[in-house]
Amino acid sequence: MNALTTLFNLRPYVAELTVVYCMLFISFIPLIAVARSKDTPTRIAIASSFSTKLAMMILVFGVFRGDWMIACIGAFVLIVGDAGMLILSLMEMEI
Length: 95
What we know:
Layout: H1 2-10, H2 13-27, H3 29-36, H4 40-65, H5 68-94
């Protein structure tokens, strides 16, 4: 009876977990693109896309859980990650 009750308690989370797993699967597509590209500016753009997807996944996970601290960390990762990619691309342009 306990296992059955636990199964029914997990049912509302199936849609949320499906969204998070789909986002995780989609976030690995830029890794394939990095492996196929040869020039550095394209790799920087692809890495920026990857970091944005992961930050958005953290945000969605935090909202689904109702934990706004995780969502704030996702927003922080989004802001800092994009700033780091901008600095890296500017350094690449100078070289």
